[in-house]
Amino acid sequence: MLDIIWSLGAFVVTLGVLVTFHEFGHFWVARKCGVQVLTFSVGFGKAFWQRRGKDGTLYQLSRIPLGGYVRMLDERVDDVPAADRDKSFNSKSVAKRAAIVVAGPVANFILAIVVLWGMFLIGVPSVKPIIGSITPNSIAAQADWPTPSEVITVNSTETIDWQQVNLAFAGALGDDSATVTVRDQQQRLHSVTLDISSWRLGEEQIPTFMALGLQPFQPEVFTELAYIQENSPAAEAGLQVGDKILAFDGTLVRDWSQIRDAIMAVPGAAVELTIVRQQQQITVPVVIGERVVDEENYGFLGVEPRREAYPEAYRFVQQYGIVDGLVKGAERTWGLMVLSVQMIGKLITGTVSVTNLSGPVAIAEGAGVSASYGLVYFLGFLALISVNLGIINLVPLPMLDGGHLLFLAIESVRKKAVSERVQEMSYRIGGVLIFALMAIAISNDVLRLLR
């Protein structure tokens, strides 16, 4: 329950910040162009807070936190006195109206730059993209990979951490091949070409590099117990920290993955563990516990194994000064903008399945998780969603900023505004398409929760 409340809180904060900046972009440019703004609303529906500013604008917070709007004086919907006609939106030139419309998405891009700038000033704890192993029978397994090795570039795009690797491979979706530069332990560079002509992203919510078969380096996990949970099956059986498991119910085990799989496969079963304790081999009877996950019954023991420490040489902090941080923030924002446009195109062409669309539930989960990791991770998430919001609003669909820009482009060519009848029909069609996409996204969220 606390997780749900935390996610909802993070979602409201995220959406509130993004919507406020987006609508402020429209508001600020409209005021600079001499347009009177009647209402500035964060949220839809009935307002629960209102205040009339000295500028005559009604500022309000509304009950449905899924968007917002700026209502401007417009002769097409308002009775405008002759003295105020020059303050109406429709009286302005095509260039000024286009500037007002595009200002919302531009504000989202500026917000992303500033947020990422702050993130880089604080410093982002990161790990180098070290490949530990290759999944058998995967796309990556068809190439000759040195392991362990560090991913340096993907299609000439620098990849300093796993997030960059993930984004770079996402950008390569739909291509025939991807060229990866890696550096082995002897500091030698290798160029590896992956055949990704038949690669498509399905329903699996896993990073792109793992879908290709690249497994990040993981420190060695031993069969020695490092932690015993209180009141667990392990504690009741008398297992102790330092015990080393040799066999599970008479079957010798070589690594922890064997032990984990064996435990999960026999919920509620009575088994015998052969262990080494203080240089003596003994047999301990254990009743495996039961745990239900996604309506499936799994066994659990209540222990954690001893792990090798993660190499400090693989850890680093992405931190920059004021100028370099701003440059990096702008570069990262541009990269996210390009990737967002590419992914929209790949959704249209079918390279990426519509099952990958996410709605408000997934955004809330992402906001909650990133916020729980710390400020810098939440800032990265906020920048990503801000860029996506800006790009989506530029899609030339009626009801979106991109649709308004399309009508203005047509008007600039025809020297005549598109008729209200055509605009009204277009808005209805656009509304149906947008609501259909939202329905798909929300249904994907629900299906993920039910899995």
Q: C-alpha Rg, in Å?
A: 28 Å
* Unreliable runs: none
What is the helix fraction of residues, given as a range? Answer: 40-55%
SSE pattern, N- to C-terminal: HEEHEEEEHEEHEEHEEHEEEEEEHHHHH
Structural class: alpha+beta
Structure overview:
- With 451 residues, the chain is α+β, with helices and mostly antiparallel strands.
- It is 44% helix and 26% strand.
- The protein has eleven helices and 18 strands.
- The strands form six sheets. Strands 4, 5, 6, 7, 8 and 9 form a six-stranded antiparallel β-sheet that branches. Strands 12-11-13-14 form a four-stranded antiparallel β-sheet. It has a two-stranded antiparallel sheet with strand order 1-2.
Briefly, what is this?
This protein has helices at 2-32, 94-122, 162-172, 208-212, 233-237, 256-265, 322-349, 360-373, 375-393, 401-414, 420-450, and strands at residues 37-52, 58-72, 124-127, 130-134, 149-154, 157-158, 177-184, 189-195, 214-216, 221-228, 244-248, 251-252, 270-277, 280-287, 289-293, 296-300, 303-307, 315-318.
What attributes characterize this protein structure?
44% helix; 11 helices; six-stranded antiparallel beta sheet; alpha+beta; four-stranded antiparallel beta sheet; 451 residues
